């Protein structure tokens, strides 16, 4: 089951960048630049109190931001 509070920015096969909710069939926004898609993804995660993930061209997670209650708060 997909976590609906997780939002992803990733590159599409056509070279554009998309912002998408985890488990969603369609992107909520498609942009020409990674920066635009990442800004949209972070805004959606802030609205829901969820997490935003940025995947690079190599499919590895480059950045991750948590909004709201952090599931793994650091100690100290």
What are the segments in which pLDDT stays under 50 over at least 5 consecutive residues?
A: none
Through-space gap between termini = 33 Å
Helix content range: 10-25%
Q: What portion of the residues fall into strands of 2 or more residues? A: 25-35%
Question: What is the overall pLDDT average?
Answer: 91
How many β-strand runs?
Answer: 5
Q: Supply the helix-strand structural class.
A: alpha+beta
Largest sheet: 5 strands, mixed
- SSE series: EEEHEE
Shape summary: globular
Secondary structure tally, helices = 1
Side by side, the strands of the main sheet go: 3-2-1-4-5
Radius of gyration: 12 Å
Q: What is the total domain count?
A: 1
Quick rundown:
With 76 residues, the chain is of the alpha+beta class. The protein is built from 1 helix and 5 strands; from the N terminus they run βββαββ.
């Amino acid at each position: 089951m997909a976590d609906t509070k997780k939002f992803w920015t990733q590159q599409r096969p056509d070279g554009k960048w998309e912002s998408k909710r985890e488990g969603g069939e369609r992107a909520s926004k498609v942009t020409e630049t990674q920066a635009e898609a990442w800004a949209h993804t972070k805004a959606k995660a802030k609205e829901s109190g969820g997490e935003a993930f940025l995947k690079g061209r190599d499919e590895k997670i480059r950045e991750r931001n948590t909004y709201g209650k952090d599931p793994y708060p650091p100690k100290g």
